User: What shape does this take?
Amino acid sequence: MRYMLLHAVEESRLADLPPQVETELEAWVEEMVGRGIELDGARLHTQADATTVRVRDGNAEVTDGPFAETKEQVAGYDVLECEDLDTAIAVASAHPTLHVGAIEVRPFDEGMPAPEVPETVADGKRRYLMLVCADMRRAMAEQGAAGSAVTEPTSDQEDTTEIDAWCDSVADRRIYGWPLALPDQAVTVRRIDGKVVTTDGPFAETKEQVAGYDLLECHDLDEALAAARTHPVAAHGVIEVRPVFV
Assistant: This one.
C-alpha cells in the first residue's frame, strides 16, 4: 500500500533542531530509498511562502498564507510504499521531524500509480506542491453510517470526470498527484518525553483537511496559481500552493 507522510512543525521550534539533524535525515532517506519504501518526498518553503486559492461564485480569492491558521504547518511530505499501516508508522517514527513536530500518516486512495518524478527541474521552471483541501466531515459521516470502509470521499469530492478533465488541462505543468483516504484513516505520530506516541486522526483538527495533492512544475507562482484556480475543489474548498525545495 502507498501512504503519505505530512510533516507538521511549529516553525518557531526549528531553531531547536539538534545539530545532527541533517545527518539523521540523510541516513533516513538513504535507508528508506534502499529498502524501496521512499518513492518521493521534499521539503516545502516556509508558510510565509504559501498562497491559498478559493473560488466563490466564480471569483478567485487569492491570499497569502497557508490554508489553515494552526500552530503546526505542513513543512514537507513523503510518499511511501509499505506493507501495512504499522510499517508506515514505524518508518515515520524514525524520521527526525519528530524532534520538533508531528507526522501525519495517511493512506492514499486505491489505484495510485508509482510517482515518476524527474530528479532535475526543467530549465526556467520551479516545483510547487498543491495541497487540495476540503471539508470532508459529511463524507466521513456517510462512511460511518454505511458501517464499512469507503476509500473515496463521496459527497464532498468532485466527480472523477471533472478531476480527470482538470488533469488533462494542466498536463503541461502537472507531474503527478493522487487523492488521500479520508482523514479518519490518518494516524499522527509524535515524540513526547522521548517516547513515540500515536493518535488516531490528522495532526490538526480543522474544518478543512488535506484531501489530496498535486506536484506541479511551472515557470512561476502565477502559473501555478492559474492551475489552482481551475481545480474543481477550489469552488468549495481551498488550494494551498507552496514552493518545493529540490
Q: What stands out?
A: Residues 148-157 have pLDDT under 50 and may be disordered. The helical segments are 21-34, 85-93, 137-146, 160-169, 221-229.
